[in-house]
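Repro:
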Amino acid sequence: MSGCFDMTVMRKIVPPQLAIGLGLIAISAVLAVGAWRFPPEMGFVILAAYVYPYGLAIFVGVVGLLLSYHACTGGFRELADHDDESEKALPGGKPGAAWVTAGLVGVAVLINLIGFVLAAGLLFACSARGFGSCHPLRDLAIGIALTLPIYWLFNAGLGVSLPHLFNAWI
């Protein structure tokens, strides 16, 4: 037997990576305590105010546990060493940061003009471009597809009023 299930090889603990995992577990605990402190009668439409923080706490806790497990069994998998071509692994640098910044500024300026969904879709497309994507229409469509459920979840699920889905002139 070899690979992941070979228990004869002693794997070392990687302390900085373990600190990341334990930090996420601590953040998860803080989120859970905060959710526990929400009063149940907050007046939200469908779900109580503590549902989303509990969900996020569970997700962050599971990710923290998985990262801690990886750190204790030899380190994060598929993590490039600095002596190879790791600088080329993520394109971007200053142009990538400029695209992401332009997306954030665009959302701040355009959210009341074009609506929440289109502004967030534009942010997604700009961020994807910043990370090297060359398919702006596909990225915009993916951004809109990801934003629609979030919009409906906040409006219907929590009763939180976000800027209009699409503004009237569209």
